[in-house]
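Sample intake sheet
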Amino acid sequence: MPSTILELKNVNKTYSTAAGDFVALKNINLNVMAGEFLGIVGKSGAGKSTFLNMINGVDQLTSGDVIVKSNGGHVSVHAMSEDERAFWRGKTMGVVYQSFQLLPMLTLIENITLPMDLAENFKARESKERAMELLQMVELEEHANKLPAFISGGQQQRVAIARALANDPEILVADEPTGSLDSVTADIIFELFTKLVYEKNKTIIMVTHDMSLSGKFSRCLTIADGELVEAELEPAFDKTMMRRRK
């Protein structure tokens, strides 16, 4: 029986602006199970990115709690200082962005080893070996010593996913990872995510504005005006069925 890996309790986020307070998230309560591929679908401005930033601790919530239960322990994300959250995020949670955010002056393999070096989880030789293994997983090992500018956008996103997996996190959060890709390349990214869920038992939380992707997740929620609503959609896959096929 899968256990809860992430819990949001009464999470609220309000931004103060010159025009007054803007409520970005309203009383979010959510349990995410280990090994789940959760999709959050909503229009621009609905609160998707803010939702992810509450989970990974990039932004500070106004009230509530975000609890991550991984590696045998429980962490209250927003009870930590900003520096503590940054270090914890680097070791515990993988983050994938729409804009890839690869460092242009580093080769692909250097982009992947960097988070391992910062987290001090691996020795230098081990981190390089692991980076090559991750590049092999995304089928880009032959480009290991190229700079990001010399590969396609879809390939850069696959490298970004490999980088997010560098420290072997249990949870990945992905902010519109297919938003700037063509449909064929987007399908490749979804296939990679699905393999990570079923073969590596990763938990993935992905936000997107594209309603047509809703059926690709094991569970899908919609977000509108900062509130979550369960979507009435048939999931594209089921872990039990997937295991039976193997």
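Comment: The first strand starts at residue 4 and ends at 17. Confidence is low (pLDDT under 50) at residues 240-246.
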